[in-house]
Amino acid sequence: MQHTRPSTRHAARSAALLAPCALCTLAAAQSATFTTPGMPVRATATGSGQIDRFSSEFNPAIGGVIDAVADWTDRRGSEDDGLAAEVRAFELSLNGRVDPDWWAYATVVAADDEVAVEEAAAHFSGLDSRTTLRFGRFFADFGKQMQAHIHDLPYPDRPGVLAEYLGEELAGVGAQVDHWWPTGDASALRASLALFTDIEGGHAHGDDEPEGAERTLAERKQLDELALTARVTQFMDVGERGVFQWGLSGRHLADFTFEDAPNALSTDGLSNTVVGLDLTYGLDSADGLSGWTFGGEYLVQSGDLAAEANSGLTALDVLNDDVSGFYAWGERRFDTTHAAGLLFSQFEHPERGAPEEREVTAYLTRKHSEFARVRFALSYSDSDEDGDALRAMVQLTTFFGPHAHGVNW
Amino acid sequence: MHHPSPQTIPLTRRAALALVALAALVAPATARPSEDKLRVVVTLPDLADLARRIGGARVEVEALATPGQNLHAVRVKPSHLVALSRADVFVQVGLSLEHAWVPGLLESARNRKVAPGGAGFIDAGAGFPTIGVPATLDRAQGVDVHPEGNPHINLALDGGAYLAANILAGLARVAPQYADEFRANHAVWRAEFDAARARWGALAAAIGARHATVCVYHQEFDYLLRDLGLGLAAALEPKPGVPPTPAHLTRVIEALRAQEPVAIVTAAWSNGKSVARVAEATGAPALELPIMVGGPGMETWITAMTARVERLARAAGVDPTAVDAALPAPAPGKGAAPGKGPAPGKGPAPGSMQPARGQAAP
Fold this sequence. Notes:
The complex is a heterodimer. Chain A is mostly beta strands. Chain A is built from 2 helices and 17 strands. In chain A, strands 1-2-3-4-5-6-7-9-10-11-12-13-14-15-16-17 form a 16-stranded antiparallel β-barrel. In chain A, a hairpin with a 6-residue loop joins strand 12 (about 290-310) and strand 13. Chain A starts with 8 loop residues before the first helix and ends in a 9-residue tail after the last strand. In chain B, the strands form 2 sheets. In chain B, strands 2-1-3-4 form a 4-stranded parallel beta sheet, sandwiched between helices. In chain B, helix 4 links the parallel strand 3 (about 90) and strand 4 (about 120-125). The chains are: A mainly beta, B alpha/beta. At the A-B interface, strand 6, strand 7, strand 9, strand 10 and strand 11 of A face helix 1 and helix 3 of B.
């Protein structure tokens, strides 16, 4: 942009006359001056060519998260005991407005010497209604907690029932439509429906890949083979300081394959479904700085749950069954810095005989600020299959820069 | 290639049909009869009072935050979302005071009328000559870093007049057919403000003459302390938004013993234990001041400010009734005391602010 000196009228007039030419020169200087067919063309006759500018004014917001854990485990009958420390994940995220109707974000996570794009999605909100369309790779809208990355959870780890039935983090590539309606003056209802070409619950950062036949999805699918998630949730004021929310969620894998790579076995045409009911209640103090939160989810997984090689190693035996489980959670926020909570989870493993596992975790969180948090936790788990285990852990999480994941309410 | 199992297609279709049916079921519940009144949603009770006074019978006002809440951490509720989605006008103080919860709420409410840039979006504090503007933007300076300076302008003696002028401009923009009515309502309010402002000015002069200092928990009263001539001895938060640490409290106690502040000024949300510890160690009494309109005798922005000024005056050893006695009686029909401020509607009181550049003047 040209600036003029107010004291020199002649110069100002000249500058005004030259301004359009100067802008032409500017645009030409910052984009391709000449193009041949097939070259990328960004600046058009009607566009401003902003995408080629060197200015940093329109850069996306960049943020980082370091989630580190040190723990001590005592597992009866196992040699997997003792102390361990790890950076569970380093997350780099970018987010920014694309234009008035589009918002985009991406999350790259480094964990276990691997770097993965966990999310890269764009939201479209230009329908002039309460509808949002989402495209790309994003966390599925299932239940109360599955959209949150592990470092954003109020407790140290994903509740066992969610991790077992859906995966530690349920990311998929697809499209989602989301809409909300007021249901009175103090409540609203939201519903979402998503179709995925690829959706798979990843294992926890720092955990080994699960054993046994692995579930895989075909790269290309027919329309009726797409995976689906759906959610309906309603939230409402309860009194002056309370909020209650209920939700119903479903995730359906229409077509997948179990592959047993070591034995070169596979079986396809399988499907399974997880449905869940979640209830959450929050109560704040008058100043909003302390309060209580109670919540829980009940899940049922049905269909083709697991597969294992038969005794002759000639085929995979598929387990078609129903398993269920739940978690319940309560937390007391004492002030802006301290919170303590208790998490209990019980579920049937999707395996033959449906062995049960129970886990209880007590934790204390101290926030040094909005951006730095230390959490101490003590967990006891009791498994029909693996026996019991005791774990003490310290989690340190720091957020630097902006932090956004596009999580729905 | 795999052929779908018989259950696959029906399940997908059933889910889609269920959602469509649900939408059809719920949609009628959102339809409400149109009303003549403008639906005004504001962030603070302070703004609610001003909007009601200026909008009069033409507005229906709802405040999101409740008295006593920490404005940096208001918990958003479903009713807030619904109210904003239906609003014709939204008023915020701005200056990043409500940045932790308002932008997300506006985004989710999807009401373009009141979204930033919309005609119904009133950024009432925009352009206010703030104090405490950080030289550099760095989280090392504190957690509550406000790039535009201290945002608690509703606690400045002239903050109400500034906010009211911008609310008037915004309401007149949204409903120009009632603009004259809004201006008349504003003139009435302004007369009351001018009278009160003249009295606060007299009290400020008496307080300032004492050269007293106070300690605060969070630096939300900086404007008020400045306007009343009270010095700031220390803040219990080591950095804005960072809770007090034992080491910092020890340093504060040592500093306060030398300065002998007349009070430790707190808000309803301040950490009572830290305040009590410092009060016990220094002998300075804790003095809780309202940070928002609300409560007995503080139902309006003017009465709430009067309550704050009088409490601080007493803490500084100034008797408000003695100052009142020394004030000349207002002339009949005039709101302000002669020599203490302009006549009603004739212009700003001493030190009062003009509306933000780019916003219409009343």
